[in-house]
Amino acid sequence: MKAYTLSSLLLSALALALAARPDAGSLDAATIAVQELDRVLSLPGQPSYSPAFKQYSGYVTTDEYLGKALFYWFFEATDKPDEKPLVLWLNGAANLLFLDSPAGVGFSYTNTPFEKDPPGDNSTAHGSYTFLVRWFQRFLQHKAKEFYIAGESYAGHYIPQLANVILEENKKASKENYINFKGILIGNAYMDGDTDLWGIVDSAWHHAIISDNLYSDFQKNCNFSLVDLSPECTADISQFTALYNIIDIYSLYTDRCELGYPDFNSSFSAQIGRTSSGRLDLMKMPMGYDPCTQTYATEYFNRKDVQKALHADITGMPHAFSLCRNSISNAWKDSDLTVVPVVKKLVEAGLRIWIFSGDTDARIPTTSTRYTLKKLGLQIKEDWSPWFHRKQVGGWTVVYDGLTFVTVRGAGHMVPSTQPAQALELFKHFLANTNLPSKPF
Question: Which domain of life is it from (predicted)?
Answer without folding.
Answer: Eukaryota
